Structures are given as structure tokens and as C-alpha cells.
Amino acid sequence: MSLGSTPFAARHIGIDATAQRVMLDTVGYDDASSLMAAAVPASIRLADGEGLDLEPAAEADTLTELRALADANTVARSMIGLGYYDTHTPAVITRNVFENPSWYTAYTPYQPEISQGRLEALLTFQTMVTDLTGLDTANASMLDESTAVVEGMLVARRASKNASDVFLVDADAMPQTAALLAHRAEALGIEVREVDFASGASFDADAFGAFVQYPGASGRVWDPSAVIAAVRDGGGRVVVAADLLALTLLRSPGSLGADIAVGTTQRFGVPMGFGGPHAGYMAVRAGLERQLPGRLVGVSQDAAGDPAYRLSLQTREQHIRREKATSNICTAQVLLAVMAAMYAVYHGPHRLREIAQSVHAQATLVADTLRVRGLEVVAEAFFDTLQVRVSDADAVVDAARERGILLRRVDDVTVGVAFDEVSATSPDVVPALLSVFGVADAPGWPGGRGYGGTGQGWHAFAPGAARSFPDALARTEEYLTHEVFTTHHSETAMMRYLKRLADRDYALDRGMIPLGSCTMKLNAATEMAAVSWPEFARMHPFAPAEHVAGYLDLVTQLEQWLADLTGYDAVSLQPNAGSQGELAGLLAIRGFHHANGDTERTVCLIPSSAHGTNAASAVLAGMRVVVVACDESGNVDLDDLRAKVDAHRDTLSALMITYPSTHGVYEHDVIEITRAVHEAGGQVYVDGANLNALVGFARFGDLGGDVSHLNLHKTFAIPHGGGGPGVGPVAAKAHLAPFLPSHTAAQQHEHAGGFTFAGGPVSAAPYGSASILPISWAYVRMMGSSGLTDATAAAVLAANYIAARLKDHFPVLYAGENGLVAHECILDLRPLREQTGVTVDDVAKRLIDYGFHAPTMSFPVAGTLMVEPTESEDIAELDRFVEAMIAIKGEAERVAAGEWPADDNPLVNAPHTAESISVAEWTHPYPRETAVYPVRALVRGKYWPPVRRIDQAYGDRNLVCACPPPEAFT
């Protein structure tokens, strides 16, 4: 096996032939084939000819194929709405964020000292959300609006003062949200009751919570404050899904009495992208901040007492609380949240209000004109969406489609029209719409006055004060008053601001991020190219099938490739995060058991080493977690597994395992493990987090797996984006395929294998974060079968090379037979602490001074570093990391020898900033050069951390989760 034998694979894989020889000699194998034969158990290895059969394509040819797929899509003017709107992404944000590897190749900010730019941007996002919603604390984004509503329901349940299982849902909710709520609630024993709040329908206030859509899916705007008060008086909590652009003109949910506000920030400069990725949001009133799911950015201080940002409170709570976690969401939509926040920064409050006014004014103009002509506009009060009664809705929708406009067919006699930022600046929209409705010659229509002649849309002929909602709902509160929203309005200022933020971060464009279990591999520029093409970016997720034929072909091809690579029969690309893929797989297992009448099968066995999201997802799927022990080698304890299977034989629903194991080892007993579960009537869920160690050599379906989720943001090259986006498709055997996620608005489309999915949805859009699927499609297409196999072997070789070079300095905690690890290795730093007092935190922070992002800390074992070099790094970078770790151990030994005090040495003081060494009097017992240039290679290209070590406890004690005033930094 010659690694990187195809042209693109040779560019993706960092190890050339010369380096491969050095690394194999170090590990002790003649070639990569013999290494993999020794590492991967023979019982699970693929036979020749099995798996994916795909010739690799050159980069130029791949782009040509992608262009053909893009050309099969039709870019129309979408006026469907329902939470998805066309928007202008400012070019300065496209170039400096969306297409900038400094932003899209960064990792989750678990090392806050080298994530200050991203954290500041996320704090700006949180401030934007709290200002507009009128609530006290917002998190750093959710996956999408519909899943945010579900999470809001769960927060309401935890915070409610009554024990009811009833949740009231607005009859005017977005249809995709209503479907998702119903599916998720059923598994948790929650009774969802639909109520037409806006029409004054009566309801039982004895509910733990209620959900209000504001404005409604119909576009209707009404005052929900009385409903909110009634639910709260009954001890319940109220969730309001609010449109942030509308909130620049409408009263905020907080001012109306809401406890929780959720929604999407898509229309703040993030393309529709056939459904995602987009940053959802959640904000809560004071007292509920510790109930927030996901991530929360807060302000703390560093070792010098200066303000510094970090993740607060329950971040990664799933890995700590496991089955007691309140949410399975461990990710965010960071890249998209940054884009939305910077859209608000660039436009500022006044321009945002102008955009909202122009959208509302255009809707008002059309509504008034239609009414003059005698058509019925259903709602008297609205913001941007109208529902119009017509004699034949299909005829109107078809006529609009012929004019290049997509409208929503509500029912036989009702058509929905949603206006947005793009339509409001397009002079052809109103004439075309009125023509479609047959009223272009209506009295009062100002077309004869040269509408749009200046190219300014509504502003060309009407004041911005038009209002089609009650004065009592008009916003009077100020918003976005912080300096960040009032300063960077020229492109020069914005460009420099984004550059300053990026410079405070460490991403793959600076060096290796060797995070175990996270697979921070190359995100090639060719893979990324198609994402911003309008044929992919400007597509509404509910567009007609004939408009998205290229997307559907891409989806089918990618589904089939993933099925072939994993040994499964069917794949759903709907889950928009790994956690949602986990949940979808478990809900499919639940659906399968229920269909067979086995409703008592609720026990989920999970090894003690598993990812924490596994346990949280099982609970959210209505299962009860039973933990299975692991042995000293990190493998599932087979005796304990058999005992647990026997004890729960009649109630066993599933086993969740990760392969290779969370400890980075290929378990030899995996076939025996899955057989034991199947014999007891259970199903096997194989977590796909570590698929990068398996592709081309073994398949989950052949191990006995019934269902798995796959992290496209790990194995298949979708960028992590600073902590999101992600895609977590769920793959299953044929018997579970009918229970995979479906969607009420899915285009008529035959999935790979010809399967029909009938399970409930897990994401807001039919294909989840569809706009980034071309990245993984391009990765697989260019790598081909041989390149993917080479990548796996290169990743395993790199991990074993690091393990071999460091084993005499740091014990490698787990290894399989032949002493080999899989694609990652766990370095045990506990002996170092016992001998020197230096902690894993000290080593992680000192690595920053050496120019590295630290490996994964204390997971899955406290006091360890889990290292995953991936296949993308070259031997020079691997050696640089090894030498840094050896040098750090030497520094720790100097502490142990008394050369440096335990409380004043380069490790406990790390990281060192430029400011910290520029003081006139240096009082530390080690020289300044040792602090910041521990190796001479750093002198010319050093990364300087912007802050010193951050005091985590201070930030939790003094919770501040919005932009601090400028004087805090003086």
C-alpha cells in the first residue's frame, strides 16, 4: 500500500513516501498494509472487492461534476418563508468569515486562551439575541429553530412549577416545528395540545408550558401577553419563537412576559442553503440561565486580572452528567452564529431597522393593493408574510413559478407570500406578484410612478413608517446599543475588526490541532468551493422537487457512498449534528420495537467509556441507561456485558458502542458483543465518531451494527467552523430504514436503495444542513475508494508513530493486540503529576507557548491527553509536536528537581503573552526567552496568545454573558 497514490489523496494526506518509511521504521512495520493487518482484527476486515467501488476524480473534474449538479437546480426568487428567507450576505463577511480558513478550520473553544476572537464574536451573538428578544441571557447558538423550540419545551418542563405533562402548542406554529415537537414529545411522555391562541381559543392553563409563534406561520401578528400571563399564572413557562428581524419593529418576547425565546438567525446574512446550516438561538429570563442547553460564552479574567472570554457553566455537560444531562446537544452553529452576529455589527441597529421597514412596507403595499382589488388578505396585522384567499391556489402558485417566484400553497384556496431583504430591494417583485394575482391594474398601484426606478425598492416612493400591526405592538425599547454595533459600519473598519478577531485565534491554518475523538483533518479548498455557489446557497428547503433536482441527485449519491462505506442499507442525511444523528438512530430502534409490539424494551446498555452524548441521547429517546463496565485495557468487559444482557433480557432495547473504542483501540470481541445483544432481542447502535480509523478496512454493518450516526465534520472533511456546523447522518440496516427520519415538506425523492423513511423528523429541514453536503461529496469523489483507504492507514500510522515516539516519556494508556492503537492514542499524564506536581492543564497551556493547540484533555480518562494527528499532517508537524511534549516533560522535571519553584515556573504560568514579557522588571526564576521561545523555531513565526491563563471559577461565580463595556478593557 502506497499512501496517497492518487493525485488528490497525495495532496490530502500529509505523509509522503520518504516520511512513510521513517514512520514505519519507528513503529516497526515493513509497510502500511502489514501495519493495518496487525492493528485491525482479522475477524472484521473487509475482503477484497467489498465496500465502496469508486474511482477517484481529479479536482478539476470534480468541480465540473459539481457544476453539472448545480446547474440541475433552479435558482428562483423564494417567497415561501416559514423561517427561511433570501438575504444579502455582505461581501466583507463572505470573504473574511465564510470563506476564511481562520474561521472555518478552528475547533470548539475549549482552550479559551487561543479562542478569544471566536469567543468575542459569540458573545456579540449572545448580546444581539438578548437585546432583540428583551431577555437576560442567550446561549452561543442552537442547531435550528425547530430543535430550539424542542429544547425550549424541555427547559420549560424543568423550570415549571407544576407536574403536568401537557405542553400547549400554537396552532399557527411553523409546520416543521409542530411535526418535530410531536415526534420528540411522544418519546418523553409529553402530551402536546394544539391551541389556536390568536383566535382566542380557550385552553387549560394547567400545563407545564406553552409555545407561541411570533409572528405566526400565517404571518399573523397579535399580542400574546394575555396568553403568556395565563400560562405563567398556572405555574407554566412560555416559549416564544420570534423572528429577529421582526423584533427590530415589534415588541420583544421579554416585554410580553415570555420566559424563553427561540428562533433562527438565518435571515441575518446566512444563505438558505436548502435548509442549513443556520444558527438557531435561545434566550431566557433571569433565573433560567443555568437551565440553558448547549454552550454559553461568558466573561472572566486571566491571570493578570484582565477581561477574558470562556465557555461557562454547563458546557460539555453531557460528558460529565451523562444520563442525567438535560440535553444531548454538545455542539453549536458557531460559524453561522459568527456570520449572523457580524451582519448585525456591520449594519448596526439603524440599518437593521431600515431593512425591516423596507420588508414590512413591501408586504403592506402588496396587501393594500390586493385588498383594493377585492382579494382577501387573511391577517389584518402582519410583518412580512401574507396569506391570500384565491379561487385556485395551484393556478396562482404555478403562475408565480413561471415568473420565477416560489410561493407557498397553504390549501386549495390560500396562497402564502413572504417578503425578505432581497425582494425589498428588487423592483421587479411587486409588479410580478400583482400580475400573478391578476391585479396589476389595481387602483392605487403606484407602478405608473416608476416603481423601483432608482433601484431602491419601496424606499423609492414611500416613507418607512408604514405599519400593518397594532401600535401597541410597536417596539419602543432600544437595542444593539453596545459600541460593537455602532462602530464597524465601513468596509475598512469591518475588515480590520474581523482580522483582529481572527488573529486572536488558533486554527488549522496556523498548525496541527491534535484533538482525540475530533478528527481535525484538512478541509480542502476544492471541497469548499461549491458551498457559496448560488445554485446551492440560495435554495429554499421546501422548494419544488424539479427546482432542486441537482441537490436530490447529490443527496442520493452521497447516501449510497456512505451506505457502501459503512455496510448499511439506508442513510438519512437529515440530522444536522452528531447528537441528532444519535437521537435519530435510537428513535428508529424505539420505533422498530414498538412496531413489533415490544413497548417494554426500554433499556439501553452503554459502556462506561462511551461519549457522554450517548447516554443523554438515550434518555431523550425514552430509554433507561444501564452502564457496562470496561476492563483495564479499555475494552467492554464481556462478562459484565453478558450479565447486564441477561438481567435485562426482556427489556433490552439497544447497546450503544463506539468502534474503535472511545479509548482508541480496535476491540477484538466486537462480533461477540453484538451477537450477545442480538440474541437477547436488542439492537446495536455503533457510534460513528471514530470512523476515520475504519473506512476501507471494516464496516459497522459487518460488525453487527444495526444503526449508526456518521460525523461528516470528522471523517468526511466538513469543517468544524469553531464548534459547528456539523452533519450527523444516520445509517441503518433495511429493517430499521422505515423508522429513519422523514419530513412533512420533503420533496418526492427516492432515497438510495429505494427506501421510504417514515420516522418523525429530527431537524427543521428535510435534508438538514444540506448546503455543506457538497463538501463531503467532493471529498469522497476526489479520494475514491483507494484514497479513503489510504487516509485511514495514514491516520493509524500517524497515531502509532506519535505513540511510539512518546511512550518512553508518557505512558500510552491503552493499546490493542500487538501494542498498536487505532487513529488516536491516550497519553497518561497522571504519573507526571505525581512526580512533579505539573498537571494536564499546565501541559495543555504550555503547549500554546510552543505553538500548538492542546490535544483533548481528560477525556475519556481524567488526567490524560488524547492525541489524534489525522492523516493530513506531515512528519515535520508530527515531530514538532513530539519534541514539544518531550521538552515540556523536561521542564516539569526541572520543577521536580527544585530548579524552578512549584508555584512559579514556565508551566504553571503558561501561556505567556507578549505583554507579560514586556514588563520592565522580570521577576520569574526563568528567562523571558524560555517563557515565549522555548524552541528557536518559534522566533520568526510565533503565535502570540492574546490573554494569559483564564480563571474559570471566577467566570462561573460572576456570570456575565453579554458584551462588557469598553472601559472593562482599559
Automatic annotation (TrEMBL):
<dbReference type="InterPro" id="IPR003437">
    <property type="entry name" value="GcvP"/>
</dbReference>
<feature type="domain" description="Glycine cleavage system P-protein N-terminal">
    <location>
        <begin position="485"/>
        <end position="742"/>
    </location>
</feature>
<dbReference type="InterPro" id="IPR015424">
    <property type="entry name" value="PyrdxlP-dep_Trfase"/>
</dbReference>
<protein>
    <recommendedName>
        <fullName>Glycine dehydrogenase (decarboxylating)</fullName>
        <ecNumber>1.4.4.2</ecNumber>
    </recommendedName>
</protein>
<dbReference type="InterPro" id="IPR015421">
    <property type="entry name" value="PyrdxlP-dep_Trfase_major"/>
</dbReference>
<comment type="similarity">
    <text>Belongs to the GcvP family.</text>
</comment>
<keyword id="KW-0663">Pyridoxal phosphate</keyword>
<dbReference type="InterPro" id="IPR015422">
    <property type="entry name" value="PyrdxlP-dep_Trfase_small"/>
</dbReference>
<dbReference type="InterPro" id="IPR049315">
    <property type="entry name" value="GDC-P_N"/>
</dbReference>
<feature type="domain" description="Glycine dehydrogenase C-terminal">
    <location>
        <begin position="791"/>
        <end position="912"/>
    </location>
</feature>
<dbReference type="GO" id="GO:0004375">
    <property type="term" value="F:glycine dehydrogenase (decarboxylating) activity"/>
</dbReference>
<dbReference type="Pfam" id="PF21478">
    <property type="entry name" value="GcvP2_C"/>
</dbReference>
<feature type="modified residue" description="N6-(pyridoxal phosphate)lysine">
    <location>
        <position position="714"/>
    </location>
</feature>
<dbReference type="Pfam" id="PF02347">
    <property type="entry name" value="GDC-P"/>
</dbReference>
<dbReference type="InterPro" id="IPR049316">
    <property type="entry name" value="GDC-P_C"/>
</dbReference>
<comment type="subunit">
    <text>The glycine cleavage system is composed of four proteins: P, T, L and H.</text>
</comment>
<dbReference type="InterPro" id="IPR020581">
    <property type="entry name" value="GDC_P"/>
</dbReference>
<feature type="domain" description="Glycine cleavage system P-protein N-terminal">
    <location>
        <begin position="11"/>
        <end position="425"/>
    </location>
</feature>
<comment type="function">
    <text>The glycine cleavage system catalyzes the degradation of glycine. The P protein binds the alpha-amino group of glycine through its pyridoxal phosphate cofactor; CO(2) is released and the remaining methylamine moiety is then transferred to the lipoamide cofactor of the H protein.</text>
</comment>
<keyword id="KW-0560">Oxidoreductase</keyword>
